[in-house]
Amino acid sequence: MSAGTELFRPISAEVDSDGRLVRADDALIRLHARSGGIEGGMLAIPALARLADLSIRLQMRLSRAVRVSDEAEQLELWVEVRPEGKLAKLNIISWHVLASLAKPRAVVDDDMPEIDTGTMRLDAALRMVHASGIATVGLTPTDFGRDYQEILNELYSGAECITGLIDLATPHVVTSGCTLTRISDDKVVEVTGEKLSDNYRLFFKSKQTPVDHAPAQSGVAPEAMFGKHLAPVLRQPLGRIIANAETIGSELQGPIRENYALYARDIANAARHLSALVDDLGDLEAIERADFKTAKDEIELGDVARRVAGLLSLKAADHSIVIETPDANIAVYAVAEFRRTLQILLNLVNNAIRYSPDGTQVYIEIAQVENWAQISVTDQGKGIALADHDKVFEKFERLGRSGDGGSGLGLYISRRLADAMGGELFVADTDSGGAKFTLRLPTV
Questions:
Q1: 127-143 pLDDT, tens per residue?
Q2: What is the mean pLDDT of residues 222-238?
Q3: Residue 421 half-sphere exposure toward CB, CA atoms < 13 A
Q4: Is 303 found in the same domain as 429?
Q5: Which residues contact 399 (CB under 8 A, 6 or more apart)?
Q6: Are residues 322 and 373 both part of a single domain?
Q7: Are residues 177 and 199 in the same domain?
Q8: What is the bridge-based pairing of β-strands 361-369 and 322-324?
């Protein structure tokens, strides 16, 4: 487009309540792509994303001028937004090019020759919306939209220095570098940051490191090989198998013989089991690294309990099991990583449903006990023998059960996660004969 364009026809787009670009005209799609966006992903133009989000939350029509920038230009757009339920419908009325941006100067270190490069684009809330080149190593589709510091802390050691990368007062200036080591292959990577008008960009540069001529240790597998490389490759075809098998089994494309529908459901269940096993093996590899760390979020355990109950409500209903959650008026705060705490509780409640008789209840309770924030899951099943209270947390231990779809890793991973967060996970029997698993975490 020319430097100052009053549009003959508005450029339109639709953004959902999660910030994803649902539909857009070609001009905006090109701007989204140049800003680091991907098809169907988070809108990579933060100023437009914020405007869409505000319109949906307020359920109000909005119109204003916004300034945005991509790789080459700084633009001023006049945008009108109207909400339609959980969608924001955007119309760009005018499009003006304010300035052309010079390509950022690369930071060069002559002592270590450059091997490869990449970039990571962040929105105004510091969430990753795009990555390219070596910045994509180790990423999965679920990483898009997450805080960039969480992602780098999981993929690199020495990532404590990243917090100062983008605290810049002056736009279009590259900071001094932060040197990280990629966990998957010990590759040394220098990361620099740049602030644009309303978003941020990180530059990744891989460095040649001295060759270590020490004899290799026999029998030692490459670290993080499964979780970082194989797991993402396996999840995609498994997801397709599950989706296609469910479509066949539910007869959405027309009626089929009953035994074929049963075969399709068996295929879907087997693929789900494999997918869960892939996730477990990826987690197992991560938690057994010497440098594994968790985030220190401030979380409310009652909120975690209610989220888990909502996620597993349909599975519980299939067995006429009721999940009882804490009273909404009770709040217990802890310092722990939200995602990992949710993972532990999902495993505990899922197990309680799996091993409880139909028509019973599962109770989730929270409390503050001395210096601990505590959340417990109690079922009305057969319980666990006292001699097996520690054994149940061992790797691949299933206490002789078979055919129930479990991997024997869930409780082992959960206890390791609890330890990593400075807490503990243990089991006790109840007076009624069921099992009670308790997670204790540091308080705020």
A1: 888 777 888 888 776 67
A2: 58
A3: 33
A4: yes
A5: 384, 388, 391, 392
A6: yes
A7: yes
A8: parallel
Angstrom CA distances, 136 to 40, 51, 69, 71, 163, stand at: 18, 29, 22, 19, 20
Positive or negative: CA dihedral 380, 384, 390, 396: negative
Residue 160 CB contacts under 8 Å (≥ 6 apart), including other chains: none
Same structural domain, 320 and 428: yes
**For residue 382, what are the domain limits?**
298-442
Tens-digit pLDDT profile for residues 318-351: 899 999 999 989 999 999 999 889 989 999 999 9
Detail the DSSP E strand segments found in 28-100: 62-69, 73-84, 87-100
Tell me the CATH number at 82.
3.30.450.20
The pTM score is 0.48
Q: What is the pLDDT of residues 171-212, one digit of tens each?
A: 444 445 678 888 877 788 888 877 766 677 888 888 754 444
Q: Which of 254, 287, 320 is the last residue of a domain?
A: 287
Nearest in space to 143 (alpha carbons), one of 133, 158, 131: 131
217 within domain boundaries: no
